[in-house]
Design brief:
This protein has 2 domains: 6-253, Alpha-Beta Complex (Spore Coat Polysaccharide Biosynthesis Protein SpsA, Chain A), CATH 3.90.550; 282-382, Hexapeptide repeat proteins (UDP N-Acetylglucosamine Acyltransferase, domain 1), CATH 2.160.10.10. The protein contains 9 helices and 31 strands. The protein has helices at 40-50, 63-70, 103-109, 111-117, 135-145, 158-161, 199-209, 220-226, 245-253; strands at residues 6-12, 32-33, 37-38, 54-59, 84-88, 121-126, 129-131, 149-155, 165-169, 175-180, 189-197, 230-234, 239-241, 282-283, 288-290, 293-294, 299-300, 303-305, 308-309, 314-315, 320-322, 325-326, 331-332, 337-339, 341-343, 348-349, 354-356, 362-364, 369-370, 375-376, 381-382. Strand 2 and strand 3 (37-38) form a beta hairpin.
Amino acid sequence: MARPRTLLLVLAGGAGGRLELLTDHRAKPAVPYGGSYRLIDVSLSNAHHSGIDDVWVIEQFHPVSLTDHLANGRPWDLDRTHGGLLTLHPHLGTEREGWHQGTADALWRQAPLIREFDPDHLVVVSADAIYALDYDTVVAAHAEGGGDVTMVTTRRPIEEAGRYGVVETGDGDRITNYVYKPDEPATDLIANEVFVFRPSALLDVLGSLEEDGGDLGDHALPQLVDAGAAREYRFDAYWRDVGTVPAYLESHLELVGDDPAIRLDDPAWPMLTRGGHHGPARLARGAEVADSLLSAGCDVAGSVERSVLSPGVIVEPGASVTDSVLLHGAVVRRGARVRGAIVDTGAEIGAGASLDGTDDVVLVGAGARVAKDEEVTGGGRVARENT
């Protein structure tokens, strides 16, 4: 018996404005994460480990930053003669041309391609959360349940639930109500942006909405729930949305220490990414490093504690980095103090400078410079000056 044909669609076209300076010059799914990875590596690695060979990535904002990283799908064994990775962009020349105006609209514009591909199951995921999930297990549960959509659900603190689609359930796994980003959430159970659809059901709903589709949560998902065709798949393992600056930093701090919330290098489910070209990390005599992740090519002569350093980061003698994330090629000069900060690619913290994000994250943009002995306190934002 032939295996059912599953298509994974990664929604990777959002502007990512809540990540502020981190998405000024790159797509949100291309934002570095965990030292050596990118956010989109999560969904692509899950696809690989789940045995899904057909993956489409819908791009829009800053597409080059993402396409360059995807490398034709090679890191995830998606560089195939038949199937594999396909990147989709806004286009001209058909009745569905133009910019995507939300996730449902993005899918509606690709509906003819989806119908032509004719999958048995359509998995739709976003690219801004950290988790390890076997999509094929969810697909199997969806097929057994016989509904039009299976939403992967997880619990979040009630004060956060209003940022997502909030789910109410009835008997068994049946979803009885779904409200997108409510002001007053009825429960702490949310849809975590992993969905399995019966393709014809989703495409029929999108066809009825056409250009008014907006996001999936606006009309499409409520319509499927109201029809009694929605089920949940409960996911109780680690899941973290990193779509805001504070959440991005907090999730990194959950990677370090003796008992990290999730291991990106888990031998049973490793995160896969495009390979780099850096040599080993270097720790100078006198360097102090504790509860941290250091990527290839780092050069540390100062102190680093409870932090994550991407490839090529330099921490000079006498400098200290605590509870922070330093992205590719960032430099912390002698005597500088960095605490509770995110320092983007190629930024430089001058000698003797101080970043103190203890109460509110400090964010230094790509290529920005913090002057010698300058102080930046909680909530500060340092962008690169125009030249």
